[in-house]
């Protein structure tokens, strides 16, 4: 086997051994809405301390991801043809 | 036939009279190598600018600049790695695009003279000189793109004036206890105190150890001459009895002891490459090519143990200023097309507005950069940089809207995804300075892009006569569709779909994206899931998954990191199956039809090495072949027609370093190069249909 194929096989093997990544799905849209409301409320009342903002941004980002996940999963209920 | 026309992306490499305070004065272009001279000054390879810069030890002042684009002694084409001679006032430079090594001599007041150039002639004939080490009067260079009998790369050992001694093509175990190790695309090299060579063996993502005869020197931890399990192995530095491997885990520098035991990591980086010990105790010089930055960090390496993940302190940084007018920063993809006969300045009918905007943006940037105080933890420094950049983009967007800077005619613009500046730019011409920021800021990680001209007005679509812009994000694995807002005269988000994961409705590290001309489906190269995803926008504006095809592997219909997708008039789907080094072809239902190509170095024919992008144009396929730095033209059945090739950073020749997602429209090829930070434009002259 030549070097290129050997390297590609090793790379694929390594990738498949790595744990699968997935965003934890939101249980339902109500939870999602509640989470976003919490973040928005906190953003309004918390002093603009950078560390806190950072954590809130991350939380909001995770919630946004979950929202997309939920919407995309719902699109799977009837594949479009 | 493919010929080079021009490029988009302005070069800002002018410097004031030197020496000068470095802050705010230096815009770097994908810097890679660094070293310290015997007076402790910092030498940096400003690689895509084809020059070397010399700073004082604390990076406060820029002292000298040396070199320009070219192939004469003292000129460079991608100066890559630097190495100071241990005893003499000499600096070795791997001049990668010229396939040679240059030896420079310097005086204490930094008069720099080229002494020798070597390596580009027989018997050496370097093909990709990269990392360098020196020991006991001998110089060793990693020849990254050398092709041995099995495709393996090599190390070359020379004397200090460049005379050939030997090359090392396999790392052999002295007792023949294991198979010899092959090198593939070796980049960084380093030495320990015993003179053992450590090799960042990029093709295998391993760290290999050998002596100067090419004999394996096994690590105690596994009895093998290599360490594995790294996400990426592009470089390695041995500093104070520690091995530092940038990128071995994402956004971090992994730290190993010399027995191969992983001690922990340094966190708070983006994609670091070269790490050099600073002249002060516990300091490290780190280049971040994608951030266009050279940084001075402080950290006690002895504290990295027991799996600790430490943050460093950022003492100083230079560069990281790549949003001047017309400048691009990690440009990844293009879409649309400029008009055939561009106006002088189609993006701004009011030049004074643009001038005022440019000035105010620069003032804002200067102000926000002052927020960075010395000795910030690395994560905070990185976050602050990103947040200030992000804020700037928003402020710039609002300024543009309030001042009424118009897009003129959004249907006749070339859209550029300026990922490193988190923004879209658009150009109404193919001039180097033609690009201007447009639209709201993008989420970091935005990568692939295409236009979608809908046949019917979709629910919520404000301007159905203007194309939608579909952008995928490599990091979040989301796809965002933007539409033109006639009132704001800006692009605004229309729909978002996808999420990160491996379920059918999810995406993982999506790259190229294309529209099926038959039914307007959106096809996405879901590279991390090794498959192609087909999505559709309904008339009610809802994005739904239609299907996915492909599984991991190297058989027919299987993929290993598919990076781009293109479709012909019948809906046949062509995919760059990147790590299988081939193009695969599917029918409109995702059934495998045939594939072509095999791995190999070649600038012509159907040998590929990491084909990255492709486009279908008038009965032909245009393929960008990354490692061969070639644009290859085929008929759809895989018959080779013509090519254009050029490895380097010479803007006048259309050369390439890291070409990414190609776009072809009406016989013009737009190929963004995310390391050179420009979009090359080529003319495609097609033969008549077979």
From TrEMBL, chain A:
The species this protein was found in: Marinospirillum alkaliphilum DSM 21637
Renumbered residue ranges of the record's region Disordered: 1-26
Descriptive protein name: Uncharacterized protein
Superkingdom of origin organism: Bacteria
Automatic annotation (TrEMBL), chain B:
Keyword NADP: no
GO terms assigned for molecular function: ubiquitin protein ligase activity; zinc ion binding
Alphabetical keyword list: Repeat
Ranges occupied by NHL repeats: 496-532, 546-589
Protein biosynthesis listed as a keyword: no
Protein name per the record: NHL repeat-containing protein
InterPro entries membership: 6-blade_b-propeller_TolB-like, NHL_repeat, TRIM-NHL_E3_ligases
Origin: domain of life: Bacteria
Organism: Marinospirillum alkaliphilum DSM 21637
PANTHER family in the cross-refs: E3 UBIQUITIN-PROTEIN LIGASE NHLRC1-RELATED, PROTEIN LIN-41
GO BP terms, alphabetized: proteasome-mediated ubiquitin-dependent protein catabolic process; protein polyubiquitination
One Pfam short name: NHL
């Amino acid at each position: 086997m030549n070097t290129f194929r050997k390297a590609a096989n090793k790379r694929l093997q390594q990738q498949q051994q790595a744990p699968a990544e997935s965003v934890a799905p939101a249980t339902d849209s109500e939870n999602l809405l509640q989470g976003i409301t919490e973040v928005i409320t906190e953003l309004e009342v918390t002093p603009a301390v950078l560390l806190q903002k950072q954590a809130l941004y991350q939380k909001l980002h995770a919630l946004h991801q979950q929202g997309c996940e939920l919407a995309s999963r719902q699109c799977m209920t009837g594949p479009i043809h | 036939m493919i010929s080079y026309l021009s490029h988009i992306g302005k070069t800002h490499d002018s410097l004031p009279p030197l020496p000068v305070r470095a802050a705010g004065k230096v815009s770097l272009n994908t810097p890679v190598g660094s070293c310290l001279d015997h007076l402790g000054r910092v030498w940096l390879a400003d690689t895509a600018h084809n020059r070397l810069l010399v700073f004082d030890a604390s990076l406060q002042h820029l002292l000298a600049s040396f070199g320009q684009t070219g192939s004469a002694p003292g000129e460079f084409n991608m100066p890559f790695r630097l190495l100071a001679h241990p005893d003499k006032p000499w600096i070795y430079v791997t001049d990668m695009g010229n396939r040679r090594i240059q030896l420079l001599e310097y005086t204490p007041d930094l008069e720099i003279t080229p002494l020798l150039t070597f390596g580009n002639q027989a018997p050496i004939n370097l093909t990709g000189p990269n990392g360098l080490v020196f020991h006991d009067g001998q110089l060793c260079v990693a020849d990254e793109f050398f092709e041995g009998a099995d495709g393996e790369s090599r190390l070359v050992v020379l004397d200090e004036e460049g005379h050939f001694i030997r090359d090392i093509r396999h790392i052999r175990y002295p007792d023949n206890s294991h198979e010899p190790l092959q090198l593939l695309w070796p980049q960084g090299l380093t030495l320990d105190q015993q003179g053992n060579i450590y090799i960042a063996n990029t093709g295998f993502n391993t760290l290999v150890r050998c002596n100067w005869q090419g004999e394996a020197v096994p690590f105690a931890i596994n009895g093998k001459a290599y360490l594995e399990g790294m996400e990426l192995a592009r470089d390695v530095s041995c500093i104070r009895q520690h091995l530092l491997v940038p990128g071995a885990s994402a956004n971090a520098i992994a730290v190993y002891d010399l027995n191969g035991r992983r001690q922990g990591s340094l966190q708070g980086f983006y994609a670091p490459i070269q790490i050099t010990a600073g002249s002060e105790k516990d300091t490290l010089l780190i280049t971040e090519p994608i951030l266009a930055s050279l940084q001075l960090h402080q950290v006690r390496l002895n504290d990295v143990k027991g799996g600790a993940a430490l943050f460093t302190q950022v003492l100083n940084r230079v560069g990281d200023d790549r949003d001047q007018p017309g400048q691009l920063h990690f440009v990844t993809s293009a879409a649309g097309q400029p008009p055939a006969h561009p106006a002088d300045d189609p993006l701004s009918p009011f030049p004074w507005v643009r001038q005022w905007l440019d000035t105010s943006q620069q003032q804002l940037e200067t102000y926000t950069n002052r927020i960075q105080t010395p000795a910030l933890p690395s994560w905070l420094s990185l976050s602050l940089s990103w947040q200030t950049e992000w804020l700037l983009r928003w402020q710039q967007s609002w300024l543009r809207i309030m001042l009424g800077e118009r897009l003129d005619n959004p249907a006749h613009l070339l859209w550029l995804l300026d990922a490193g500046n988190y923004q879209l730019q658009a150009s109404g011409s193919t001039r180097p300075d033609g690009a201007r920021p447009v639209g709201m800021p993008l989420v970091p990680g935005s990568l692939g892009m295409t236009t979608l001209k809908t046949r019917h007005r979709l629910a919520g679509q404000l301007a159905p006569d203007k194309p939608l812009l579909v952008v995928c994000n490599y990091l979040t694995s989301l796809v965002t569709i933007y539409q033109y807002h006639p009132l704001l005269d800006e692009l605004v988000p229309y729909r978002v779909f996808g999420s990160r994961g491996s379920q059918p409705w999810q995406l993982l590290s999506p790259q190229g994206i294309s529209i099926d001309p038959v039914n307007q489906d959106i096809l996405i190269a879901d590279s991390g899931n090794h498959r192609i995803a087909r999505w559709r926008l309904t008339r009610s504006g809802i994005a739904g998954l239609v299907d996915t095809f492909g599984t991991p592997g190297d058989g027919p219909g299987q993929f290993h990191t598919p990076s781009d997708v293109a479709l012909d008039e019948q809906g046949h789907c062509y995919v760059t199956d990147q790590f299988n080094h081939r193009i695969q072809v599917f029918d409109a239902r995702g059934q495998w039809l045939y594939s072509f190509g095999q791995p190999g170095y070649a600038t012509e024919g159907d040998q590929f090495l990491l084909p990255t992008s492709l486009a279908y144009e008038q009965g032909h396929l245009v393929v960008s072949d990354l490692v061969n730095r070639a644009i290859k033209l085929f008929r759809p059945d895989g018959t080779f027609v013509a090519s254009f090739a050029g490895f380097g950073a010479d803007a006048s020749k259309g050369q390439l370093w890291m070409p990414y997602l190609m776009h072809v429209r009406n016989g013009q090829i737009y190929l963004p190069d995310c390391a050179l930070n420009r979009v090359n434009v080529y003319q495609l002259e097609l033969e008549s249909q077979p």
